[in-house]
Structures are given as C-alpha cells and as structure tokens.
C-alpha cells in the first residue's frame, strides 16, 4: 500500500494529503503540551476523545450555518477536512476572566465579562504566540479589515453555539480559541472555522462545582485529563457512559 504524504505535523495533530483535491486528513495524536511545549506528556485516548468532540462541535456548527472545515469522521483518530489557507492568528473569545487575561490585567479568575471579549494572538511558537492588535494584523498583511470583521462575526457565532451547548450539560464555557482559514470558490473567498474545537482549546468549568474539565487539568497538574475530557464527552452524549450509548446530551435541570 502506498504511504500517504504527510503535509504538516503539529503538537497535537498531523495532517495528511486527502483523497480528493482540496481535502486533507486530520489525525489526532495523544500528545499533550502546555506552556509552548515546555510541559509535555502522552495521554492515552486524548486523540480519540478530541476527534469525536471536534466532530460533534463542528457538525453542529455546520448545521446552523457556521461554515467549518469538517467534512466527516473517518475512524477513531482521523477526520476528513477541507484544505484551507490558515490565517496566522489564534482568535480567543472570553466570557469569564481566566488564564493569560487574568494575569495580564490583574482581573480575578472567575470574573464575568460585561460582554464577550475577542483577542487575536499571532501564531508564532518562537515568539510564544504574542497578543496583537487589529493595527498589527492589517499593517503586517496577516488579514484585511474585512477578514477581521468576518473573523469577529464567526467567533461570536461559535461562542453563542458552544456556550448554549455546554450550558445544557451543566458546563460553563469560560473561553476558547479557534483558528480560521480561507477557502477560494471561483473568484470569491470565504472564511471558515478550521483546526479543532475541543477541551484542548477551551476552558470548561462545571457550573455547580467549578471543577475544571479542560486542558488546565494538565497545565496545573490537578487530576486526570482523560477523565475530564471523558466527562465532557459523556455529558454531551458523544461517548457512552457505563457502556451504554446515549442518544443525545444529558440535560441538566
Ligand atoms: P489563555 O488564557 O492562555 O490566553 O488562553 C485562552 C483560551 O484559548 C484558553 O481556552 C486556551 C486557548 N488557547 C489555545 O488553545 N491555544 C493557544 O495557543 C492559546 C494562546 C490559547
């Protein structure tokens, strides 16, 4: 059998050439990294969970008309996606103060924001993904003003969808990061959600207990990351609980 061609290897995923033009296969690894890969480990099953969770979120987004790169899941660790030209920015949406914003601005973790706050970080590991302004983005040609407006609109729609989905299973969406790519259709280009949406790239807190159910469990060494992600997946009905496949999310009263 011919070996398929690897296109890109990142910290948590590998991209292979897809079966059709303009497609790629995205493989989810078990590797976990934090603090710009200074802390790393292999978490058994993380790739399987993130493949399923990203499929679940992106299928839902596609269903409500928020375009994403997701086409279909191929197996436990792989999904077929549309090839995009990635915009070199991480788009972060914050509903509640946490993480780097709490540290940078001295705002206590857990403080609700008066409205969702959007930040852009320039994707460059050697610089540690610095926070940048719209002025930088336009001046250095990473994206146009129109792209920025479209990215903000996309990010807010993802925020509303994900916040509602999580709230329904008793989880607060504190913040998250998305990446956005450009696709070309004839003379037109469109921006779509790319990369992944998973507990690796979100902060998720249990509404009742405040328990962390995201990558902070690994960053802060406060428990089992696989257990936290499994809890998210089972509440959403994406993974079976006690061997029984549920038909949908377990709503919290
Ligand atoms: P931060 O508080 O560290 O800036 O992170 C904000 C959110 O974005 C958090 O949910 C984690 C996510 N994120 C990533 O997934 N990758 C990144 O490189 C960054 C900067 C943030």
Give an account of the 3D structure.
This protein has 253 residues and is an alpha+beta fold. The protein is 27% helix and 32% strand. Thymidine-5'-phosphate binds at residues 90, 92, 98-101, 121, 129, 175-177, 201-203.
Quick structural gist:
The chain is of the alpha+beta class.
Kindly report how far apart the N and C termini lie.
52 Å
Class by SSE composition:
alpha+beta
Instruction: Please report the total strand number as a whole number.
Output: 14
Principal-axes geometry comes out as: globular
Cα radius of gyration in angstroms = 18 Å
| Discrete helix count | 6
Helix amount, in percent? Answer: 25-40%
| Hetero compounds | thymidine-5'-phosphate
Largest sheet: 7 strands, antiparallel
Helix and strand sequence: EEEEEHEEEEHEEHHEEEHH
* β-sheet strand percentage: 25-35%
Mean pLDDT: 95
Spans of at least 5 consecutive residues whose pLDDT stays below 50 are none
């Amino acid at each position: 059998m011919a070996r398929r061609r690897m296109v890109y290897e990142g910290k948590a995923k590998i991209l292979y050439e897809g079966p059709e033009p303009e497609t790629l296969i995205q493989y989810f690894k078990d590797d976990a990294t934090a603090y710009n890969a200074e802390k790393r480990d292999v978490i058994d099953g993380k790739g399987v969970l993130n493949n399923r969770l990203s499929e679940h979120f992106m299928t839902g987004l596609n269903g409500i008309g928020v375009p994403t790169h997701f086409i279909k899941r191929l197996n436990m660790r792989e999904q077929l996606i549309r090839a995009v030209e990635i915009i070199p920015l991480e788009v972060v949406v914050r509903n509640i103060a946490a993480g780097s914003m709490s540290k940078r601005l001295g705002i206590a973790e857990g403080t609700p924001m008066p409205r969702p706050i959007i930040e852009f970080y320039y994707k460059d590991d050697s610089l540690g993904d610095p926070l940048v302004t719209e002025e930088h983005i336009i001046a250095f040609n990473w994206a146009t003003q129109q792209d920025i407006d479209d990215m903000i609109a996309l990010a807010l729609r993802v925020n509303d969808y994900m916040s509602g989905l999580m709230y329904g299973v008793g989880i607060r969406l504190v913040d998250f990061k998305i990446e956005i790519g450009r696709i070309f259709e004839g003379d037109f280009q469109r921006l779509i959600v790319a990369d992944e949406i998973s507990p690796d790239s979100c902060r998720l807190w249990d509404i009742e207990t405040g328990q962390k159910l995201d990558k902070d469990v690994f960053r802060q060494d406060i428990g089992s990351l696989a257990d936290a992600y499994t809890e998210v997946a089972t509440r959403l009905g994406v993974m079976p609980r006690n061997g029984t496949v549920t038909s949908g999310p377990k709503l919290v009263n």
